[in-house]
Amino acid sequence: MTTTDVLGSAGGLGPGRALRPRSKVLPEHARSHNRSLVLQTLYRSGERSRADLARETGLTRVTVSDLVAELLAEGLVVELGQREAARPGKPAVLLDINRTAHQIVGVDLSDHDRFRGAVMDLDGALLASAEVPLEDGDGEPATGEAAVAKVRALVRQLVDAATAPILGIGVGSPGVVDLTGTVLTAPNLGWSDVRLQDDLHALTGLPVVVANDANAAVLAEHSYGGATGDMMLIRVGHGIGAGLIIAGALVYGSHFAAGEIGQVMVGTDLGLDATYSRDQVLEHWLSVPQLRRGLRDAEAAQTDPTPILREAGQRLGIALAPVVGALNLSELVLSGPTDLLDGPLAEATIHTLRNRTMAENHADLAVRMTTQGQDIVLRGAAVLVLSGQLGVS
């Protein structure tokens, strides 16, 4: 079974691949691209006639008619009936994606104490959910093969809960994940070179795509959160990760580790000649366990916890300033516990960024919380499947 077989014929989310096709391509790639172009237009706009599709995609009416016939036969598109006639002549027949024909299984492995999953419709709405605690029989978090077994059990439960054919399974995993869905390293789970995508495909026989959880999260914000332009999503949890969309494409990096900012040293506490120290990396100030611990200590000492949140925000701003300067981003989105991130921490991040970048180049930079809440990775997993199987997002 090849990676293409697992991801589906639409080609998955390769480096530099635009998430949303918008124009025609060369003849040798035309069929699959044009198919995605029609599906993307219907997925985003809905209720379009064949003539509308030809006009909006730039494809010929003959090409659109041929593609629509194929998609109708596959059950991916449905006819909704005739549009009300605004002028004499036969009314046009409206089309849409068949939004109830398939469901998607999404899995989020990023929480420190549980694995979460859901069955979703094609618009990312949760229809059923399930979770398994990460804690093993001895009271410690499961790692290695024991953690993989918990993923398998969760996926089986979700597949059984689906009430329509499953389009595919999307998984957001912590750590560094390559394009074959192999988790190259996920220290918190004790994983190294775990071929999770192939494993789950062999288990279910369904198309599977596994990606880094922050990459899944940024896809959810892009598809469902109304994000526009070049953006970076910073996911704050047990660790710190980020997803980047530049020029409409997901950024992976040369070793699939783009966005791994949690282990970057921030500040010059130990002097300019200091060597790498885990006690000086961003996660030391910003991870959820570290922040919770600091707030508990402040409460026990009956002191103001605000300085703890502000320093975390300052450290984040220090880490992000070179990225913002290099990429001229239009938007930074924070994803994590709202009670920790929204307020003094976010304010300190914005203040630090403005102090450390040239104002006229980044005057319009927006820093905001995600609109997707705690289900952001699950909904991003749905986007992974939609893009891999249908070429839409």
Can you characterise this structure?
With 393 residues, the chain is of the alpha/beta class. It has 3 domains: 3-97, Winged helix-like DNA-binding domain superfamily/Winged helix DNA-binding domain (Arc Repressor Mutant, subunit A, Orthogonal Bundle); 103-219 and 376-390, ATPase, nucleotide binding domain (Nucleotidyltransferase, domain 5, 2-Layer Sandwich), CATH 3.30.420; 227-370, Nucleotidyltransferase, domain 5 (2-Layer Sandwich). The chain has 13 helices and 15 strands. It has helices at 3-7, 27-45, 50-57, 61-73, 144-161, 196-204, 213-224, 283-286, 288-300, 306-327, 338-341, 344-356, 376-390; strands spanning 77-82, 93-97, 103-108, 114-120, 126-133, 166-173, 176-177, 183-186, 191-194, 208-212, 231-236, 240-246, 249-250, 331-335, 366-369. The strands form 4 sheets. A 5-stranded mixed sheet has the order 5-4-3-6-10, sandwiched between helices. It is globular. The protein starts with a helix and ends with a helix. Residues 1-11 have low confidence and may be disordered. This is Putative NBD/HSP70 family sugar kinase. Pfam families: MarR_2 (PF12802), ROK (PF00480). GO terms for molecular function: DNA-binding transcription factor activity; kinase activity.
Task: Throw out a few tags for this protein.
393 residues; alpha/beta; Nucleotidyltransferase, domain 5; kinase; kinase activity; transferase; WH-like_DNA-bd_sf
- CATH class of the largest domain, please? Alpha Beta
% residues in beta strands: 15-25%
Number of strands: 15
What is the overall pLDDT average? 88
**Count of runs of 4 or more consecutive helical residues:** 13
Quaternary organization: single chain
CATH homologous superfamily placement of the largest domain:
ATPase, nucleotide binding domain
> In order across it, which strands form the biggest sheet?
5-4-3-6-10
What structural category do the secondary elements indicate? Answer: alpha/beta
Please report the distance between the alpha carbons of the first and last residues. 25 Å
Q: H/E order of the elements?
A: HHHHEEEEEHEEEEHEHEEEHHHEHHEH
Low-confidence regions: 1-11
Q: Give the radius of gyration.
A: 23 Å
